[in-house]
Amino acid sequence: MKIVNNFSLINHNTFGVDAIANQFTSISSINELKKIISSNESKEKIFIGGGSNILITKKIEGLVIHLNIKGISSKKIDNNYTEVNIKAGENWNEAVIWCLKNDLGGIENLSLIPGNTGAAPIQNIGAYGVELKDVFTSCEVLNVNTNEIVEFSKVDCQFEYRNSIFKKNKNYIILSVKLKLTHANHKLKVDYGSINEKLISLGIVNPKINDIANIVTQIRKEKLPDPKEIGNSGSFFKNPIIKKKQLEKLKLNFKDIPNYKISDENYKIPAGWLIEKAGFKGKRIKDYGVHKNQALVLVNYGNATGKEILEFSLSIEKAIQFIFDIKLENEVNII
């Protein structure tokens, strides 16, 4: 375990922002993590994994700890279900592929979501009608104040739409995640987005979990830019949820506004549609902007700073508030 001074984080955030950490270290075991927390005197400690859901806007004066704890294991629970334990440092999509190879179903709709497994509960990641909480059982957590390891149940995690206790309390560091997946009688989710359309076009009548994963991967590649080619952090904003009364009012001026009923009173509105309608899709200023194919994705064309991208996101928020009277919330974590 080595601590490096004045370390560039350009390769540790998918936005490709060249921010500097005063100190940086990468740890590969829980013992190393406990040791660095107890021995390092830096007040500011930032924990990162794959760097896929962060925007760094400043030099980090303290210590950045890269969580690189690896490992996947599984055990059968009963005739239908298997529990899978995934360490925080495992790449999420590679973990999904591991599960698919072992014929374990439940997270195929979450294929190709960037980042590491440790970040999955923080965001309660979701896509194509499935959220992590749907298969989540518990996670192992380190309390940085006490340096003690505790287990959080699904209830403890306080999961909401792209939210959890881990966003509210930064003192909990996720070490591993346990999921309850099917090894028989898989329950496929095909009625969201264009999955079913793709199945029909491919002539697949009785899809398998690998078919769903392949289609989701294809759709994501078509819609979202590869962070290896252009800096981005996927969806920058959450899809806002508004009341039925506000939706009816908006329909007077925007008859084509897409919406998804969540309850009798609450409706989800695609943030990408709002941003595109406001004229931001494809807009570029200097080295930052909104992606030309996906209005929900803010991009770094090469040398943008995190502060520039943040200020641009705030201008988008103001425009959406002014035009639609809807407040956007970040899905990306701002440092």
Describe the protein's architecture and organization:
By secondary structure, this protein is an alpha+beta fold. The chain folds into three domains: 64 residues, Uridine Diphospho-n-acetylenolpyruvylglucosamine Reductase, domain 2 (2-Layer Sandwich); 152 residues, 2-Layer Sandwich (Uridine Diphospho-n-acetylenolpyruvylglucosamine Reductase, domain 3), CATH 3.30.465.10; 104 residues, UDP-N-acetylenolpyruvoylglucosamine reductase, C-terminal domain (Uridine Diphospho-n-acetylenolpyruvylglucosamine Reductase, domain 1), CATH 3.90.78.10. Helices cover 27% and strands 27% of the residues. The chain is globular and about 60 Å long. The relative contact order is 0.13.
Compact summary:
The protein is an alpha+beta fold and 335 residues long. The protein has helices spanning 30-39, 92-101, 120-123, 154-157, 165-168, 195-202, 209-223, 244-251, 271-277, 306-324, and strands at residues 4-8, 20-27, 45-48, 54-55, 60-67, 72-76, 81-87, 126-127, 130-131, 136-143, 148-153, 172-182, 231-235, 241-243, 260-261, 266-268, 284-285, 288-290, 297-300, 333-334. It has three domains: 4-67, Uridine Diphospho-n-acetylenolpyruvylglucosamine Reductase, domain 2, CATH 3.30.43; 72-223, Uridine Diphospho-n-acetylenolpyruvylglucosamine Reductase, domain 3; 231-334, Alpha-Beta Complex (Uridine Diphospho-n-acetylenolpyruvylglucosamine Reductase, domain 1), CATH 3.90.78.
